[in-house]
Amino acid sequence: MHEHIYLASQSPRRLQLLEQWGVRCELLLPDDEEDAESLEVVLPGEAPAAYVRRVTQLKLKASLERLRRRRLPLAPVLCADTTVALGRRILGKPADEADAMRTLAALSGRRHRVLTAVALGVPGVRTDRTLDALSVSWVTFSDMSPGDICRYVATGEPMGKAGSYAIQGRAAAWISHISGSYSGIMGLPAFETAGLLRAAHVRTG
Ligand SMILES: Cc1cn([C@H]2C[C@H](O)[C@@H](COP(=O)(O)OP(=O)(O)OP(=O)(O)O)O2)c(=O)[nH]c1=O
């Protein structure tokens, strides 16, 4: 039984969710020399599900290497990646406010998918074992007027969020329907993550 895991994510929501579920975790964040952002590059023609899974595996590989480089005690490592897809179009984190406004205008009055891939790496003496899962949710936005979009972007909330919004924040006021996993939309799906933790014998609760 593993008493704790490493969480290799800068997302405060993921840490908060794991703590809420009673999982003991320690952060395993990239060094200054690592270029974490460069992992999140979409390949030409890549479908959203393939993209989010591939990026999560890249994050996990980099995190397991980091664990060994730092000679830390071995324990399972959890990584995740969240992306928003409008049809086949991938809407990642906004580059700036203008980008966030364009993304929100595209999402306004429509239904899109939020995909979160989770991967758990269990480091072993000889080989590492990897478990992974994908959560797909549908989110419907009501109409946002240009004024609504401007005011929302001015709050700063869209920055650092896939699709330029946060369901757990002010964007909730425009979300008329969801189908899937609320925690998955926030960045870490409870059901799928719990399944991976159970399979890897990590203590929860
Ligand atoms: C759609 C949506 C996304 N998000 C967030 C979750 C993720 O943190 C972020 C997507 O970016 P990610 O690249 O998945 O994660 P991150 O950059 O925050 O952290 P790391 O790569 O170190 O793990 O968007 C919300 O908080 N609420 C939402 O409603």
Structure description:
The chain has 205 residues and is of the alpha/beta class. The protein has a single domain, classed as Alpha-Beta Complex (Maf protein), CATH 3.90.950.10. It is built from 6 helices and 7 strands, in the order βαβαββαββαβαα. The chain has helices spanning 12-20, 48-69, 97-107, 146-154, 182-186, 190-199, and strands at 5-7, 25-27, 77-86, 89-91, 111-122, 129-141, 175-179. Strands 1, 2, 3, 4, 5, 6 and 7 form a 7-stranded mixed beta sheet that branches. A hairpin with a 2-residue loop joins β3 (77-86) and β4. α3 crosses α4. The radius of gyration is 17 Å and the shape is globular. The two termini are 13 Å apart. Residues 9-11, 13, 40, 80-82, 84, 93, 114, 160-163, 165-168, 185-187 line the site of thymidine-5'-triphosphate.
Tell me which ligands are bound. thymidine-5'-triphosphate
- Structure annotation, total helices: 6
Please state the second-level CATH architecture: Alpha-Beta Complex
In the residues, how many domains can be counted? 1
Strand content is 15-25%
CATH class category name: Alpha Beta
What descriptors fit this protein?
RCK_C, binds thymidine-5'-triphosphate, Maf protein, 205 residues, hydrolase, seven-stranded mixed sheet, ITPase-like_fam, 6 helices, 7 strands, alpha/beta, hydrolase activity
Would you spell out the secondary-structure blueprint of this structure?
Elements: E1 5-7, H1 12-20, E2 25-27, H2 48-69, E3 77-86, E4 89-91, H3 97-107, E5 111-122, E6 129-141, H4 146-154, E7 175-179, H5 182-186, H6 190-199
Parallel strand pairs: 1-2, 1-3
Antiparallel strand pairs: 3-4, 3-5, 5-6, 6-7
Helix pairs in contact: 3-4
